[in-house]
Model the fold of this input.
Amino acid sequence: MGSLRAAEIAERLGGRLEGNPDLVLEDVADVERAGPAHLTFVYGSRAAEQLARTQAGCVIVPLELAAPAGRTVIHVADPRAAFARAIQWFRQPRAVPPGIHPTALIEPGVELGCDISVGPYTVIRSGSRIGDGTVIGAHCAIGHNVIIGRRCRLWDRVTLYDEVVLGDEVIIHSGAVLGADGFGYVRTAQGYEKFPQVGRVEVGNRVEIGANCCIDRAALGVTAIGDGTKLDNMVHVGHNVRIGRNVVIAAQTGISGGVVIEDDVVIGGQVGIGDKVRIERGAVLASKCGIPTSKIIRRGQTVWGIPARPLKQYLRDLAEVGRLVQLRETVEQLEARVRQLEAAVRR
Done:
């Protein structure tokens, strides 16, 4: 952990400094806990309130936000993105020295790049290739004919089945499994017969895959994840799914086989996506929504609910559900009035 002057940080961020350029900052912190030696950030509707209250020495703020007198701030277009960059200057990841741990098992025919690290009890099967600068943690299992690109990071207990392909700068967190068989069976008179899963998994560059994700190999062909896509923990990607570039998928989402997700899609947590769904570019799937089999979510559309429907329609339907109590009370009053009228007629 190092220290930086406010002026250095502003220069690196391309921001406009206001206040003390020689203020020395030693660490980063969230806006509520930051102290005089900390850098933090504010944004959104509460930015002015948070800036007035924080004890941080220097604050990254939106371009249009006026700073109180005496505060040291750095004005940028996107404070959150700028702060994410700055964190790396204060909190360097722990360096992993190159080398192969003596307990690692590397079969003949494995091609190892320069400056790689392989942790304890990891197994790498024959025919695999590991790119320069890649770090593989402890207890990982790398199958036959796997290709891992340059500067990848596989944390402990990652499993890559045979013929999985990773691009450059891929991060895979602990417990993730790539290349297991897809859920494919044929119903016969004797019961379910397994449909052989003989395809593979291909992952692009700069992809991050969270802990305990499962990405199934294709039945035939490829299960593919495009460049820059990020998967949260415990996401399941079924066989023959094709995910585009710069897609983000939150935790506990399940994607059935044959789904196509185009570039720049945002998928919330606990979303369920049925077989052969197509989600067009830039669509947003709100948390816990359900997409029925073969449905198409149109370009740029935001959907919510079970079954998923356009956001405005979902909110309108939700409001109507809220009126059901009032409707029930009205019906009960009318029924009571009818009973009174019927009793009067009988008299």
User: Anything to note?
Assistant: The mean pLDDT is 95.
